[in-house]
Design brief:
- With 249 residues, this protein is an alpha+beta fold.
- It has two domains: 3-72, Winged helix-like DNA-binding domain superfamily/Winged helix DNA-binding domain (Arc Repressor Mutant, subunit A, Orthogonal Bundle); 78-239, Beta-Lactamase (2-Layer Sandwich), CATH 3.30.450.40.
- It is built from nine helices and nine strands.
- The protein has helices at 3-22, 27-34, 38-50, 66-76, 80-96, 136-144, 147-160, 168-182, 222-239; strands at 25-26, 54-55, 61-64, 99-106, 109-116, 122-126, 185-190, 193-203, 206-214.
- Strands 6-5-4-9-8-7 form a six-stranded antiparallel beta sheet, sandwiched between helices. The chain has a three-stranded antiparallel beta sheet with strand order 1-3-2.
- Strand 8 (193-203) and strand 9 form a beta hairpin.
- Helix 5 (80-96) packs antiparallel against helix 9 and helix 6 crosses helix 8 (168-182).
- The longest helix is centred in the first third of the chain and has 20 residues, at 3-22.
- It is globular.
Length: 249
C-alpha cells in the first residue's frame, strides 16, 4: 500500500476515534484536533460518510453512523475474552451482590471489557477515562509494570487529574505493600466503596485484571470475594484461550 494511502487510513481511524470520544464535530474542529488542513478533513469525512461509518446529524457536523456499530459488532466476535468477561462478571455480581469488572491497559487508559453492576445493569467495552491512580485495577496493573514504569504511569495519571505527580512513588509503594500483604490488592473505604479487591493475570496475550467492589456490606464478604477473584481469573484465562484445530482438545 502506498504511503499516502497508509496516511489516509491512519487519519480516517483517528477521525472515527475522535468522533467516538467527542460526539458530533465540524470538519473545522476535526482538522484542528488532528492538525491537518480543513480540506483534507472534509475529504476524509466524505469518504467515511460514503462508507456508512459517518453521518451528518446537522448541516455542519459529523457523527458516527450505524455502520460503525456493524463493524464493532463483527469485531467483538473476534475477542472471546469480552464474552468471557461478561459471563464471569455477571455470575460474580449475581452471587455476591457486588460490582465486578474486567479491564486491561490500552496505552495509558483502562479499557474495561465489561462491568456488571449490583443494580443488574451492565456496560460492555467501556473506554471512559477513569483515572488510573484512583482505580484498584489501574494501580495493580501499574504495579505489574515494575517500579520505574509504574511510577511514571501513575505520575502522569495524577498530573492529568490536577494532582501532585510526585506522590506517585508513595502510592505505588503502598500498592506494592498491600499486594505483598494480601496476595491481591485489597482496599477498604476507598472511592465510596467499603471494599475494592483486584487481582491481575495474563489474558489473551495481555496483562488484565478482575476487580470486585461494593458498598456497606462488602467487608463481611471478604473471604467470598477472595474465592470469586480466584475463580474468575481462572475462568477468564480458560475461556479466552483460542480454540485449537478441529479434532484437537
Amino acid at each position: 500500500m502506498a504511503e499516502p494511502q497508509v496516511q489516509s487510513l491512519a487519519r480516517g481511524l483517528a477521525i472515527l476515534e475522535l468522533l467516538a470520544e467527542r460526539g458530533a464535530l465540524t470538519a473545522t474542529a476535526v482538522a484542528a484536533e488532528l492538525g491537518i488542513h480543513q480540506s483534507s478533513a472534509s475529504r476524509l469525512l466524505a469518504d467515511l460518510q460514503a462508507a456508512g461509518l459517518v453521518r451528518k446529524p446537522s448541516y455542519h457536523r459529523f457523527a458516527l453512523d450505524y455502520g460503525a456499530l456493524v463493524f464493532a459488532g463483527r469485531a467483538l466476535q473476534g475477542f472471546p475474552a469480552i464474552a468471557a468477561a461478561a459471563g464471569v462478571c455477571n455470575q460474580i455480581t449475581a452471587a455476591t451482590g457486588l460490582n465486578a469488572t474486567v479491564a486491561m491497559l490500552y496505552g495509558e487508559r483502562l479499557l474495561y471489557l465489561t462491568r456488571a453492576n449490583a443494580d443488574h445493569s451492565m456496560v460492555l467495552v467501556d473506554t471512559s477515562d477513569y483515572p488510573l491512580h484512583a482505580s484498584s485495577l489501574g494501580c495493580h496493573l501499574a504495579h505489574d509494570r515494575g517500579l520505574p514504569a509504574g511510577t511514571a504511569l501513575l505520575g502522569r495519571s495524577l498530573a492529568a487529574a490536577g494532582e501532585d505527580p510526585a506522590t506517585a512513588a508513595a502510592l505505588l509503594a503502598a500498592v506494592s505493600a498491600n499486594i505483598a500483604a494480601h496476595g491481591l490488592l485489597l482496599w477498604r473505604e476507598v472511592a465510596g466503596n467499603a471494599l475494592n479487591a483486584a487481582t491481575t493475570f495474563e489474558l489473551d496475550g495481555r496483562r488484565a485484571g478482575l476487580a470486585i467492589f461494593g458498598g456497606a456490606a462488602a467487608p463481611t464478604a471478604e473471604p467470598a470475594v477472595r474465592r470469586w477473584l480466584a475463580w474468575g481469573a481462572a475462568r477468564l484465562v480458560d475461556e479466552a484461550r483460542p480454540a485449537g484445530p478441529r479434532g484437537q482438545a
